[in-house]
Amino acid sequence: MPEAEIDRIYDYDPKYLADILKSVKTIAMVGASADKTKFSYGVLRQLSEIGYDILPINPNPNLKEIRGLKVYRSLEEIEKPIDMVDVFRPKEELYAITERAIAVGAKVLWAQIGVYDDKAAKLAEEAGLKVVMNRCPKIELFRPFWKPRLDLEI
Fold first, then answer.
1. Does the pLDDT value for residue 4 go beyond 70?
2. Domains of the chain
3. CA distances from residue 43 to 2, 21, 36, 124, 150 in whole angstroms, order as listed
4. Is the full-model pTM beyond 0.85?
């Protein structure tokens, strides 16, 4: 299978991921959706319910809120410090989102499963941001509690 068709695997130390998730409080979610069937909706719901301050970002002018949370049109519209930018957009958009995350002073750039760009990662790291690509914070939060049961019959 050509490399372009394979999702890139980024290997992160579990402590690095845990430290990020323990340190951030405010998460701007670029590509948040009000559609309950979308992955971003489930992640927004879970992260919000466990106590993160989620700031949904969606350019649709008719979308005012998601799960009672005010929807912003862009990162620049948010008037408070942003700890982490969580990206639910195609990887082709990640570099431009990274530029905006740097401009607003975010501390972490987190790109969801299937979203990665080495140039964007390098740009963010050079600007002092911590970077996670091709991972989901919801999954990483619960990974320490999940233990495979290899003794079960199939």
1. no
2. 8-143 (3.40.50.720)
3. 30, 14, 10, 23, 28
4. yes
